[in-house]
Amino acid sequence: MIIAENLTIYYDRQKAVENVTFKLDSDQTLLLLGPNGAGKTTLLRAVAGLHQNYKGTLLVFGKPPIESRNVISYVPQSYSLNERVPLTVIEVVAMGALYKRGLMHFNIPRNLLREATEALEFVGLGSLKDKRFSELSGGQKQRVLLARALISKPKLLLLDEPLSALDPSARVEVVSVLAKIKQEIGLAMIITTHDPNPLTEIGDKIMLLNKELIAFGSPEEVLRDEIITKVYGSQSKAIKVGKRMYCFIGDVHLHRGERK
Ligand SMILES: Nc1ncnc2c1ncn2[C@@H]1O[C@H](COP(=O)(O)OP(=O)(O)OP(=O)(O)O)[C@@H](O)[C@H]1O
């Protein structure tokens, strides 16, 4: 379980996220929604144990995040793999485990190659394992990064904007892998997004963040006109299609000067 109580996160003395409280069960998926500069990445990095300038309580499986890092996989927004290094897809996946195990060499042990192959098959890319990573499409790269994040068998998967910069069909591919992860692996996930609509089928909880916590609850509880208009203005609208909630929101940009 992930627990935050009165969590305030700082850059130096500047508050980036203020007084956030929430709980997430170990098999639940949280969609972390908010406009530019709302503090989504900052909160995600704090949960990952990568940003420790905070006050309040933050516990990941009963421990401060820094002590739980071996069971957390974090996929940053802009993945900084130098694409001039001619790595194959399977090497990119296997390196995820090598980093975690503190090994930094390129002789990938055979058992690890097998695990990496299985992880690639799980995301539907087994046939591309020997291809250059740099030659893949955006959606395929994101699926490889999911395989790489899964190889260390995390209990918590943190994804920063996994759908940004993908075209609609690539989004569908990635969302179907996320749904499979949720169904078949059953771990906790926190996914930051500007647009919850493609992800509402897998989101158990949604947090609307705008430096402060605006709302936290089920999609039905959070995607309501009276809540989303607080952040996205009077033009935004929540709508129910079948059993699922969706929303129309514009992109709101916060600038430093506008913050409290
Ligand atoms: N390294 C940093 N040093 C100082 N301030 C930072 C740093 N990184 C982010 N901030 C500030 O913290 C606030 C929250 O930023 P953050 O990147 O977490 O927002 P976000 O919701 O992820 O935005 P986006 O959707 O644009 O990625 C912003 O005001 C940002 O300028």
UniProtKB/TrEMBL annotation:
Keywords linked to the UniProt accession: ATP-binding, Nucleotide-binding, Transport
Molecular function (GO) terms for this protein are: ATP binding; ATP hydrolysis activity
**Pfam families documented for this protein:** ABC_tran
Q: Which Gene3D superfamilies match?
A: P-loop containing nucleotide triphosphate hydrolases
Under CDD domains, the record lists: ABC_Metallic_Cations
Membrane spanning stretches:
none
Protein's recorded name: ABC transporter ATP-binding protein
The family annotation for this protein states:
Belongs to the ABC transporter superfamily.
Q: Does the keyword Lipid metabolism apply?
A: no
Q: Domain ABC transporter, which positions?
A: 2-236
